[in-house]
């Protein structure tokens, strides 16, 4: 099943001094989702923001908030992120004590749930979770840093996920995040990805609206 291509710019590449403008511009540029990278300084070395930022962003945009939790024991916080305004919550299953329970917590809040496969994490042990989720995010860089170069081998994981989804007739989006540009997005889409995260490619573009159009088509 060919799914609609959605573009989810990462606000990590936006202007933190004027985050309101960075978020509002996404609607003007034609983005489909607001991708919010939450880092705890434990699962990944960097720290970004938490529930208060999600709550603030929710007040200024009608776009769905796609919240990627790069945190340990995400089950401790998924309900709070849901209450803060997250529409989609993805987490790293190896960082959770019980991924199925974490997914259930998200779903019980009426939100979409997803898992994230980091660049150095094999996908095969977590394929069974596709039966319970709405989206799988394949990292095409190592989680925790912006501006990295695309890892081509990540496309193999996208293809594996797509095969499992198709064979089991599941309605699951495949998101890809990391180093995606107009030059390599076609490869990601051909492999099966339909939700494209792009940070620097959008926010640093001369014409962000055009860039989003090019990433989508």
Number of discrete domains: 1
Low-confidence stretches: none
Q: How would the global form be characterised? A: globular
CATH architecture level-2 label: Alpha-Beta Barrel
> What number is the mean pLDDT?
96
Q: What order do the strands of the largest sheet run in, or round the barrel if closed? A: 1-8-7-6-5-4-3-2
Write the CATH homologous superfamily.
Answer: Aldolase class I
Q: Decide which structural class fits the backbone.
A: alpha/beta
Topology-level CATH name = TIM Barrel
Query: What percent of residues adopt helix (DSSP H or I)?
Result: 25-40%
Explain how this protein is built.
This protein has a single domain (6-216), classed as TIM Barrel (Alpha-Beta Barrel), CATH 3.20.20. The chain is globular and about 40 Å long. With 217 residues, the protein is α/β, with parallel strands linked by helices. Helix 2 packs parallel to helix 3 (78-84). It has helices spanning 19-29, 51-58, 78-84, 99-108, 154-167, 185-191, 200-203, 208-216, and strands at residues 6-9, 34-39, 65-70, 88-91, 112-117, 135-139, 173-177, 195-198.
Secondary structure: elements and pairs:
Elements: E1 6-9, H1 19-29, E2 34-39, H2 51-58, E3 65-70, H3 78-84, E4 88-91, H4 99-108, E5 112-117, E6 135-139, H5 154-167, E7 173-177, H6 185-191, E8 195-198, H7 200-203, H8 208-216
Helix pairs in contact: 2-3
What are the key terms here?
217 residues; alpha/beta; TIM Barrel; 8-stranded parallel beta sheet; 8 helices; 8 strands; 32% helix
């Amino acid at each position: 099943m060919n799914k609609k291509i959605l573009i989810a710019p990462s606000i990590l590449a936006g202007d933190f001094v004027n985050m309101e403008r960075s978020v509002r511009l996404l609607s003007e540029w034609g983005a489909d989702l607001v991708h919010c990278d939450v880092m705890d300084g434990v699962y990944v070395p960097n720290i970004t923001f938490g529930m208060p930022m999600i709550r603030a962003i929710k007040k200024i945009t009608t776009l769905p908030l796609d919240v990627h939790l790069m945190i340990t024991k995400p089950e401790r916080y998924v309900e709070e992120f849901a209450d803060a305004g997250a529409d989609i919550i993805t987490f790293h299953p190896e960082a959770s004590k019980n991924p199925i329970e974490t997914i259930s917590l998200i779903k019980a809040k009426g939100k979409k749930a997803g898992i994230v496969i980091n660049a150095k994490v094999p996908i095969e042990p977590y394929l069974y979770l596709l039966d319970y989720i709405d989206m799988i995010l394949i990292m095409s860089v190592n989680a925790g840093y912006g501006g990295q170069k695309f890892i081509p081998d990540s496309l193999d994981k996208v293809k594996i996920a797509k095969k499992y989804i198709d064979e089991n007739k599941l309605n699951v989006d495949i998101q890809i995040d990391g180093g995606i540009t107009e030059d390599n997005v076609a490869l990601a889409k051909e492999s099966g990805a339909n939700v494209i995260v792009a940070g620097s490619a959008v926010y640093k573009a001369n014409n962000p609206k055009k860039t989003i159009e090019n990433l989508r088509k």
